């Protein structure tokens, strides 16, 4: 409660403006053969192929397991040019700061090399930093904010790199050495980003990665991009050291230094979007459950008052549509309320390194209407003890051929003791975390959607955060503790 109240008192430092190309145009088919789509059952970010084995994207796009889709143009249609390759390892920059988005870059190692052809080609890493005034191309499948442009077809836009002074003037004290601005200071043009993580290519080199910005095509608020020339040495060193990377542990936060550290601790990753061994919730039996949407469902959350929703900090996006009163998220059942966010506030002590304080608040633009389908859940008055039975819910993958992930899934599971939790994840459990599930594995110990609720005796005790594997022995789900 102390942390939640504190979050209400602080403002938003800046807004990430994901997934927008405004004033652009449909790219000539396969003119950007380095462009990839990152997919986890849906397209969620862009990226750039930089070798047959490696993709560069934004660290804020991190997920533990990613399918990389290459050779795409129209992402909703199979055109015979695509290659779908799973990640084997996902590595965020070791100095990535999720609070200010410094060093917002990550590497994705493909589980098998891409086949290079006329549809799939790597882009060169920069040999030097491009100067102000250089014209570049940014591309992505983000929202075009146009009724004429089809966001399912790869969109391009041309824009100039701005001077350091213009960038700093636009975002005072927010621009680091790893960032640059590009766009038009007068606004109203194509200064918004493509998909987060997507490429900014200047004279055939990958100079930037789509990172953040304020508003969209607004005066004096150009897009902000990760400066690839400042991290090229890290990219090259990490790729060269790939023989030391551990296959099938794609979720750690690593440089080689971090990898060695994780070898000593044991592997940890965020296992998003899974309910296993659960059941379809009785319709609207979880009226606090919300779906966070940015053109697609990406996380869960909990309504805690008509104005506020609690979710996980690792689900952060600058603009979110909160969908309340849902059961079947693919069908309009006339019980829904769709309300945009006015503020999204992560816990000030959230750490993307160890997922500590993985909690955030979303302020609704207009209050939710409370009724039979939409109700707030109580915040906890005390921490629930070990052994308390709780319900976790979400629309995540059920890993079942019979269960429908589009219908809200529930599962019942007990809170575990702090000792059992620490034994399962030595050195990784903080005071802001607890475990719930079954140590013997094989049952319903995996999480629902990230950010979703863990409700015990009518109180929101937890937020779905992370875990290792799914229903594996001695690896229960780990949840952010709401009462701290």
UniProtKB/TrEMBL annotation:
Cofactor dependence: Ca(2+)
Gene Ontology, cellular component aspect: extracellular space
UniProt keyword terms in alphabetical order: Digestion, Disulfide bond, Hydrolase, Protease, Secreted, Serine protease, Signal, Zymogen
Principal localisation: secreted
SUPFAM superfamilies associated with the record: Trypsin-like serine proteases (SSF50494)
InterPro entries assigned: Peptidase_S1_PA, Peptidase_S1_PA_chymotrypsin, Peptidase_S1A, Serine_Proteases_S1, Trypsin_dom, TRYPSIN_HIS, TRYPSIN_SER
Boundaries of every Peptidase S1 domain copy: 21-240, 275-484
Localization of this protein: Secreted, Extracellular space
GO MF entries: serine-type endopeptidase activity
Gene Ontology annotations of biological process type: digestion; proteolysis
Entry annotated with the keyword Heme: no
Source organism per UniProt: Merluccius polli (Benguela hake)
Signal peptide extent: 1-15
Pfam families noted in UniProt: Trypsin
Enzymatic class: hydrolase
UniProt superkingdom: Eukaryota
Reactions this protein catalyses: Preferential cleavage: Arg-|-Xaa, Lys-|-Xaa
Enzyme Commission numbers on file: 3.4.21.4
The protein's name in its UniProt record: trypsin
């Amino acid at each position: 409660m102390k942390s939640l109240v504190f979050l209400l008192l602080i403002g938003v430092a800046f807004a990430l403006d994901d997934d927008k190309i405004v004033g652009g145009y449909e790219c000539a088919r396969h003119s950007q053969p380095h462009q990839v789509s990152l997919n986890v059952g849906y397209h969620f970010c862009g990226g750039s192929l930089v070798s047959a084995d490696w993709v560069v994207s934004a660290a804020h796009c991190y997920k533990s397991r990613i399918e990389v889709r290459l050779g795409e143009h129209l992402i909703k249609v199979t055109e015979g040019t695509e290659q779908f390759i799973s990640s084997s390892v996902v590595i965020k920059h070791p100095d990535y700061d999720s609070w200010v988005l410094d060093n917002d870059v990550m590497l994705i190692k493909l589980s098998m090399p891409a086949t290079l052809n006329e549809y799939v080609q790597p882009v060169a890493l920069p040999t030097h930093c491009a100067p102000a005034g250089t014209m570049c191309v940014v591309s992505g499948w983000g929202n075009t904010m146009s009724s004429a442009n089809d966001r399912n077809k790869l969109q391009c836009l041309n824009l100039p790199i701005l001077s350091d002074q213009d960038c700093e003037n636009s975002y005072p004290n927010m621009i680091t050495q790893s960032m640059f601005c590009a766009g038009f200071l007068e606004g109203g043009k194509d200064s918004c980003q493509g998909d987060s993580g997507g490429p900014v290519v200047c004279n055939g080199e990958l100079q930037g990665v789509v990172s953040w910005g304020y508003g969209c095509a607004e005066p004096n608020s150009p897009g902000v991009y990760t400066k690839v020339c400042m991290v090229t040495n890290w990219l090259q060193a990490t790729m060269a050291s790939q023989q030391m990377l551990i296959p099938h542990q794609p979720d750690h936060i690593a440089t080689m230094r971090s990898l060695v550290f994780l070898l000593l601790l044991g592997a940890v990753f965020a296992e998003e979007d899974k309910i296993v061994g659960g059941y379809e919730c009785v319709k609207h039996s979880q009226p606090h459950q919300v779906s966070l949407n940015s053109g697609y469902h990406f996380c869960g959350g909990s309504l805690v008052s008509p104005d506020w929703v609690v979710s996980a900090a690792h689900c952060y996006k600058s603009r979110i549509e909160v969908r309340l009163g849902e059961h079947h998220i693919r069908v309009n059942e006339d019980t829904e309320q769709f309300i945009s966010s006015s503020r999204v506030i992560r816990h000030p002590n959230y750490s993307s390194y160890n997922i500590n304080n993985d909690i955030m608040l979303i302020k609704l633009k207009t209050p939710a209407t409370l009724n039979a389908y939409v109700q707030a859940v109580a915040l906890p008055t005390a921490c629930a003890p070990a052994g308390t039975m709780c319900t976790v819910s979400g629309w995540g993958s059920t890993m079942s051929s019979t269960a429908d992930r589009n219908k809200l899934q529930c599962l019942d599971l007990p809170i575990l003791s702090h000792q059992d939790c620490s034994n399962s994840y030595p050195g990784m459990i903080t005071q802001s975390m607890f475990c719930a599930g079954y140590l013997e594995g094989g049952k319903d110990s995996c999480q629902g959607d990230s950010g979703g609720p863990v409700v015990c005796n009518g109180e929101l005790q937890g937020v779905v955060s992370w875990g290792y594997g799914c229903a594996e022995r001695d690896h229960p789900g780990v949840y952010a503790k709401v009462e701290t």
